[in-house]
Design brief:
Blueprint (H helix, E strand, L loop, with lengths): L2 H17 L4 H22 L7 H23 L11 H4 L4 H8 L3 H22 L3 H8 L11 H17 L1 H4 L6 H21 L3 H24 L5 H24 L1 H9 L2 H9 L9 H18 L9 H8 L5 H6 L6 H33 L5 H17 L9 H25 L12
Helix pairs in contact: 1-2, 1-6, 2-5, 3-18, 5-20, 6-20, 8-10, 8-11, 8-19, 10-12, 11-12, 11-19, 15-18, 18-19, 18-20
């Protein structure tokens, strides 16, 4: 492969990472170049990667969408679009291009992730009209900083906070520009944690807390495994953990009233659900989700294997007769990525997504055990997996650009290391045999 093409791919990758939120037009076009050129490069030059799971799963998801669309024409032609809308799930595989351009390099992966955080925070400042939004949030109001809506900005803050916490020992270590790195890390982490609170998104709060606990458990386990010769590294790791925990305690003590008010506002919904009184569930923020999920289960039960096609989520909201007209007109999605996959593409589509998640999770573990992926990167990968699974239970992040952006960034970094491990070991992720050379 030519050096010019390689530099073009890397430039597109960095522009996508740094500019997708702050400069959407530039970032989106760069992402398209990165993905298409990367996929072409994998198919043309990636002899050992063409048969890897992500490429086969991409083919499978395209076939599933074609099947669902074709059978939909036979069953409900009035609700089927003129084209199969293959990008609905195929865009989840944009990470293939990024993984190729990163070339298994930890250094490049960390730099791509590193430029994404200040790019996002710059967008928060520019789109959120500077101090105005922060002042409103600090006064107890809910703010979205002008980027889609509060839920999506909260998700971005959550991922950035987990990443900053994961790489705390690396950022706070001694060496060149140590003071600058430490100050930048502290400033960005504080901004992200405050941003998490003022966006007031309960699903993201839950996802962040659970993911943090999982990562802290992993961090503690790894610290115990360090040899005696790594005493200083262990102390730095625990110091960073304690520092993050103290920051969280101080933060939530400061915003106690805001957090408590946000958590208690849906008490009636929870009570009605526990008692099985569906008619008593109001159409509040959580109530809308409960009613839409209940409607989705009815549609899934009717076509459980192939679903209703790309417009399935809209059909649930528009064609479920017992939903109020105001709700049917206002919402076009289910606020749950997993239900949307089941409604749209049935168990076949969900199986492909589950296989992808299994391959990446196991591959991350094997790449770390094989010494190819750093421990802090593997820890962040698993923390992100937990966070994203929970967050997508309460919002359809992967149906929007924000979720696709984060998914591509993290998956690209993990998959490039998994491919590196496969090449160096000659093994495959799900079957322990020599890879085809």
């Amino acid at each position: 492969m030519s050096r010019v093409l390689t530099w073009l791919g890397l430039l597109a990758t960095f522009l996508y990472a740094a500019g997708r939120v702050a400069w959407p037009d530039v970032g989106q076009k760069a992402g398209t170049v990165m993905a298409l050129l990367g996929l072409f490069a994998v198919l043309y030059w990636g002899r050992r990667l063409r048969s890897s799971a992500p490429l086969w799963l991409l083919l499978m998801i395209v076939l599933v969408q074609l099947l669902s669309w074709g059978l939909g024409y036979l069953h409900h032609p009035q609700w089927v679009p003129d084209n199969p809308e293959l990008d609905r799930l195929a865009k989840w595989f944009l990470f293939i291009g990024m993984a190729w351009w990163l070339g298994g390099s930890t250094r490049l992966t960390l730099w791509v992730w590193a430029v994404a955080v200040p790019g996002f925070l710059l967008a928060v400042w520019l789109e959120g009209h500077g101090w105005q939004s922060w002042q409103r949030g600090l006064a107890g109001g809910r703010v979205g900083f002008g980027i889609h809506n509060a839920q999506h900005v909260a998700m971005l803050f959550g991922v950035a906070a987990l990443g900053l916490a994961s790489f705390a020992p690396r950022m706070c270590s001694a060496g060149r520009l140590a003071l600058g790195r430490r100050l930048a890390w502290c400033a960005m982490l504080i901004v992200c944690l405050v941003g998490l609170v003022v966006t007031q998104t309960r699903g993201v709060w839950l996802a962040t807390i659970v993911a943090s606990l999982v990562m802290l458990g992993g961090w503690a386990w790894r610290a115990r495994k360090l040899s005696r010769h790594a005493e200083a590294s262990r102390h730095r790791a625990w110091a960073a953990v304690i520092g993050v925990l103290l920051a969280i305690v101080v933060l939530f003590s400061t915003f106690h009233g805001t957090v408590e008010r946000r958590l208690l506002v849906e008490q009636q919904v929870i009570t009605s659900v526990i008692e099985g009184d569906w008619g008593g569930v109001p159409y509040s923020s959580v109530g809308v989700r409960i009613h839409s999920w209940r409607a989705a289960t009815e549609w899934i039960a009717e076509r459980p294997f192939v679903g209703w096609g790309g417009e399935g989520r809209s059909l649930v909201m528009e064609q479920t007769a017992w939903l109020p007209d105001t709700i049917r007109q206002r919402f076009g999605h289910l606020h749950n990525t997993f239900l949307e996959v089941l409604v749209g593409y049935g168990l076949l589509g969900a199986s492909v997504v589950a296989l992808l998640a299994t391959w990446v999770a196991r591959g991350t573990w094997l790449a770390w055990r094989g010494g190819v992926m750093p421990g802090d990167m593997a820890l962040f990968g698993f923390g992100f997996f937990v966070f994203f699974m929970i967050a997508n239970l309460f919002e359809s992040y992967l149906a929007f650009w924000s979720g696709g952006y984060v998914f591509t960034l993290i998956m690209g970094g993990l998959v490039t290391h998994i491919w590196h491990w496969q090449r160096s070991s000659g093994l495959t992720v799900l079957v322990f045999r020599k890879a085809v050379r």
